[in-house]
Every structure is written in structure tokens, then in C-alpha cells.
Design brief:
With about 325 residues, the protein is an alpha/beta fold. The chain is about 30% helix and about 15% strand. It has 12 helices and 10 strands. It binds pyridoxal-5'-phosphate and iron/sulfur cluster.
């Protein structure tokens, strides 16, 4: 008879959990992505080897409609040759973030809150991302070097909120997050920690019991701002992950980006708000696309964006209408349109 398998592996390192395996096995080849969807012939030219690599977890692919080249989830993650078109006015650092970096990995642009770019890693690579050219290797404080960023926060009693961003902060292990949470929790003038994340959207099993317990046990209030652009991203597994977060006491908000051909219709936006609400999430921001080089084919012009929001307001209660905003370098907050 075989010896019974060891239930708790004896290992000094952290063992790889389901969500970490899922991260590791994400699809990185655009042709494989098309193949999985039965799309051997994409009508548009794809970029097979883009500078900003393709990365899509299987859980997200599972929500795409096979055989549909216009699937709104597919369009967010498939690299197109269009990304190589150079468009005037589109830059590699549209938000001038590199100027706002007070210490490596810490952006202090707005009063009362700082944003930590904890890691360059994301679970999914969104083709429209304004950080697609961001030099994360220099910009994030590195595995063992959060001390400078934490010291900056400790010294400034007018900072009340720490925003964990990235990349994606939930691509860090629970052990790393717990370390950071404990350090932030111990700074008395911090009353809120905000987590800007898309990992649970594309890999719902990221909402582990350890993460939920950590949120439930923290002194500071926790706000999770997820990033969902289209109602079809929300399936039963995500609904469960979101309710796990809210059960642990987190406030749930959503930010979306207005994307041509993906969610730039009254129907998509209204359905997104309704579906978010059913999942315990309120819409927070709808961002106008940041003019990042390689993403111009996703742009929705401001007049059309305003028109859509006006139509949405005529259709939904105010609390289901996200704020349409744009980020302009040098402004004291995001700018409402
Ligand atoms: C968006 C952003 C914030 C948060 O802004 P809110 O309006 O509070 O959501 C904070 N810091 C930076 C650098 C940002 O880009
Ligand atoms: S998850 Fe967020 S930071 Fe990462 S690629 Fe997508 S939009 Fe960019």
C-alpha cells in the first residue's frame, strides 16, 4: 500500500495555491487564445509577438463566446497589429506618473492619499492599459524594499488612505500582503486601505480565506476597487468571490474604462451597472481612455462619452451611474467630464 500523501507539504517556501497555478498557466500566445476559441481565422490582423506580452488566465477565457471574434472580453486582451500604429498625442507615460513618484513605488498626486505601485505583475494584460510602457522594474519598490514608501507615509500625518496598486497588488502572495497590511495598520493616521485590483475578476479563486480573514481582522477600513468593463465578465464564480470580499467587510466599487467596440453602448453600460449592483458592487469611475501609445483604436471621443453618460443617467438611479473621469497630469484630482 502506498503511504498516504502528505496533506500539508513540508516546505519552507510558500506552496503554490490554485490561483498561483492559474497565474502561471495563463495563455501567453495570441494564436493559442484564438485556437481555444475556435477562431483559427481572426478577421483582424493580430500581433503575434507584442512588446507588451499577451497574458490571459483560462478562467477569463472560459467566459468568452467561442467562435465570436468580436467578443468583448477577447477584444480587451488580444494583441492586434493596430497596437503598432503611432498616433500623435498618444505617449508612453500619459499621466506623467514618473514625475509624481515621491519615492520609488509611491505616487503622491492627490491630497490625503498615496498610491503604491507594489508590483509590475498583473494576472491579465489589458491591451488599453495606460501602464503598458511603465518601467515597473525601476518603479516598484522590490521584494524587500517597501521601507522607504512606508517611512514616507509614516512621516506625513495628512495622509489617511493608502492605495495598493501595481500592476496588481493581488498578484502578491497572501504572506507578502499580510506583511504590508500589518505595517500599514500600525500607522495611526491611516484609516483606509484601498486595493485596486483585477486579479479576482480574472481568477476568482484569488479571494482566499486567508485574504478574507486579513481584511476582516484589519483595523483600517478596506475598500476594494475592482476593474470590470463588461457585464459578461461577471459569472457565478466572480459573484461568489465578490460576496466573499464584502462578507469580510470590504466596501466594493468598480472602475471601468470606456472602450470602443467593447462597452461604448447604453445597453452594455446599463447592464454593467445592474449586474455590478446585483453582485454587491457600486460603479465608481468610468475612465476615458488614457492616451497611451498603442491603444488609440480603443478611444471613445469625449462628446460621445458625455452623450452615453447622459443617456445612462436618464435610465438608471444616480447611484448606478459611474462618474465619467479623465486623468489630466497636474490636476489635484481626476477630472469629471
Ligand atoms: C486615481 C489615483 C488616486 C485615487 O483617486 P481617487 O479619486 O481617490 O479615486 C490616487 N493617486 C493616484 C496617483 C491616482 O492615479
Ligand atoms: S489589470 Fe490593470 S494594471 Fe494590469 S494590465 Fe489590466 S488595466 Fe493594466
Amino acid at each position: 500500500m502506498n503511504k498516504p500523501a502528505r496533506i500539508i507539504p513540508r516546505s519552507t517556501g510558500e506552496h503554490q495555491t490554485d490561483w498561483q497555478q492559474s497565474l502561471a498557466s495563463a495563455v501567453r500566445d495570441p494564436r493559442e487564445l484564438l485556437r481555444l476559441l475556435g477562431l483559427d481565422q481572426d478577421p483582424r490582423a493580430i500581433d503575434r509577438n507584442p512588446a507588451f506580452p499577451v497574458r490571459v488566465p483560462h478562467e477569463f477565457i472560459a467566459r468568452m463566446e467561442p467562435g465570436n471574434p468580436e467578443d468583448p472580453l477577447l477584444r480587451q486582451v488580444l494583441s492586434l497589429a493596430d497596437e503598432n500604429i503611432v498616433t500623435p498625442g498618444y505617449t508612453t507615460d500619459p499621466l506623467a506618473e514618473q514625475d509624481a513618484m515621491a519615492v520609488p513605488g509611491l505616487l503622491h498626486k492627490y491630497a490625503g492619499r498615496v498610491l503604491l505601485t507594489l508590483t509590475g505583475a498583473c494576472a491579465v494584460h489589458c491591451r488599453y492599459c495606460f501602464r503598458r510602457h511603465f518601467p515597473y522594474n525601476e518603479a516598484n519598490p522590490g521584494r524587500d524594499n517597501w521601507q522607504a514608501a512606508l517611512a514616507y507615509v509614516r512621516e506625513r500625518a495628512d495622509i489617511h488612505e493608502v492605495i495598493l496598486s501595481g500592476g496588481d497588488p493581488l498578484s502578491l502572495s497572501d504572506a507578502r500582503l499580510a506583511e504590508l497590511f500589518a505595517a500599514i495598520d500600525a500607522i495611526p493616521h491611516i484609516s483606509r486601505v484601498r486595493i485596486h485590483t483585477r486579479v479576482p475578476v480574472v481568477i476568482p479563486s484569488r479571494v482566499t480565506s486567508t485574504l478574507r480573514d486579513m481584511i476582516a481582522a484589519s483595523r483600517v477600513a478596506v475598500v476594494c476597487v475592482v476593474h470590470i468593463n463588461h457585464p459578461r465578465e461577471i459569472d457565478q464564480s466572480l459573484v461568489l468571490a465578490l460576496s466573499g470580499l464584502s462578507d469580510s467587510g470590504a466596501t466594493l466599487l468598480n472602475q471601468a474604462v470606456l472602450l470602443k467596440g467593447i462597452n461604448d453602448s447604453l445597453k452594455s453600460l446599463a447592464e454593467l451597472s445592474e449586474t455590478l449592483f446585483k453582485s454587491g458592487v457600486l460603479p465608481y469611475y468610468l475612465h476615458l481612455l488614457d492616451p497611451v501609445q498603442g491603444a488609440a483604436h480603443f478611444a471613445v471621443e469625449a462628446p460621445r462619452a458625455r452623450q452615453l453618460l447622459k443617456a445612462l443617467s436618464g435610465h438608471l438611479p444616480g447611484y448606478l451611474v459611474p462618474r465619467l473621469v479623465q486623468e489630466l497630469p497636474g490636476e489635484p484630482s481626476k477630472t469629471a467630464l
